[in-house]
Amino acid sequence: MMTDAAAQAIRAGRTALGVEFGSTRIKACLIDLDDPSRVYATGSHAWENRLQDRNWTYALDDVWSGLQAAYAALVDEVRGTYGVVPETFGAIGVSAMMHGYLAFDAEGELLTPFRTWRNTSTERAAAVLSELFGTNIPLRWSIAHLYQAVLNEEDHVADIRFLNTLAGYVHWKLTGRAVLGIGDASGMFPIDAATRGYDAGMLQKFDRLVSDRAPGLDVSALLPEVLVAGRPAGELSAEGARLLDPSGALRPGIPFCPPEGDAGTGMVATNSVAPRTGNVSAGTSIFAMVVLERPLREAHDELDLVMTPAGDPVAMVHCNNGASELAAWVGLFEQFATIAGGGLDADEVFEVLFREALDGDPDAGGLLAYNHLSGEPIAGLPEGRPLFVRTPDSRFTLANFMRAQLYGVFGTLALGMRVLEAEGVALDRMYAHGGVFRTAGVAQRFLAGALGAPVAVADTASEGGAWGIAVLAAFAVDTADSDLDVFLTERVFAHAGFDSLEPDAEDVPGFAAYLSRYRAGLSIERAAIAAKL
């Protein structure tokens, strides 16, 4: 009976589709419109960024082939499970990695290869803008990329007619509307909390700043329109329907919610959009979002000021490097298991190694692991140098090695969170999501020790941002609730289970000792970069 009811809902379009472009996977998620906690089907496609001419990028052709593959996988699952092929949805939402630089000319052609959030070549521009605006402008923000292009006297600047993020670009191609959710927009240019639009005074300051080098450049005309969660954001066009579903089964006219960044969808996926709540999202990058009760006392290089999808102020600690180096080491052990005839698959290897880490010393036995595959501004590193370091008297065991690697995932994040702690920002609970938390009670426990605060993981955590943007799509067509926090609490998470862990009494001082060594050891990373090793 449940399958029959689901098939009927899918056939009638009583569903919401969410698509998210993560750093390593493009995911699609189909949920029930009336009960957004119910997931009907998912689909995914693996992709990777590439280092091209010293620039981290994705090819736009890969955006569309990957989107089509993820959607086709979802349709295949729907067909196989429910015996129907979706022809329409109640709403669609698009999410993607925030920040970066996509610059287009008047014909909508990309002027320079996509520069992702991972690039750290904007140090000069970010420093000038931070001083000019009186607030931290991170290296990965779109406005820093634009100003760096102006400083570099790049030829394409004169031809720019609009800028966007990856989510905004895909949304524009599917609907024809150049709009952006306020959370994603706040990673392009600073937002005025009162007007919930781009800060007018800062727009004027930027135009004056570039008037000599780029005369006539009007930054406000280049940026997409800002929309808060719940606002209509266009409909699927006929061209967009063919882009998403080349088979021709999907019909146009489906409403869209505002496109959002992965930070915003992570907040939705963990029900952390209200003040005194926060979340940690761990993937290729790792970041914490803490919803503020009051403005911070001063600007901090370690903290970005962004917005929830509903337009409330958030302090963000964003680290370019998350779990990729950890996954590389686990992959090495997986190779060993295969060669040794162990017959363990990747998930089983992760499980075994994560469980082993629980037996490690609280301070990881004096071992150090740095996960910096790319530059890390919070740690003061312009380039990536992943390293594993030990001294002759370190307690070099597998348990300590794995605990050091897991601690390393949270190392740079903890540096930024210590700044928030000094600001007196209070948290009732921190929520976590991402693949690293799939092994129950391991990464979650270590994160609690790193933050000195309870960490909760929801039943829906593994669905991630694709589910989060599907929920925002459902919110956009819902007529009963106008408040996102109420919608999430009463409609989405009313019966959700949360597994919460308090900090372990030994882990807190143990991680503090690890972090002290971690700070000191950053000089090793800087020496490796200086030596061009």
UniProtKB/TrEMBL annotation:
Enzyme class of the recorded protein, top EC level: transferase
Domain of life: Bacteria
UniProt-listed InterPro entries: ATPase_NBD, FGGY_C, FGGY_Carb_Kinase, FGGY_N
Keywords assigned: Carbohydrate metabolism, Kinase, Transferase, Xylose metabolism
UniProt-listed GO biological process terms: D-xylose metabolic process
Coiled coil start-end: none
GO molecular function: ribulokinase activity
Residue ranges occupied by any Carbohydrate kinase FGGY C-terminal domain in the UniProt entry: 279-476
Domain Carbohydrate kinase FGGY N-terminal: 16-243
Listed EC numbers: 2.7.1.16
Entry's family note: Belongs to the FGGY kinase family.
Name of the featured protein: Ribulokinase
Organism (species): Microbacterium trichothecenolyticum
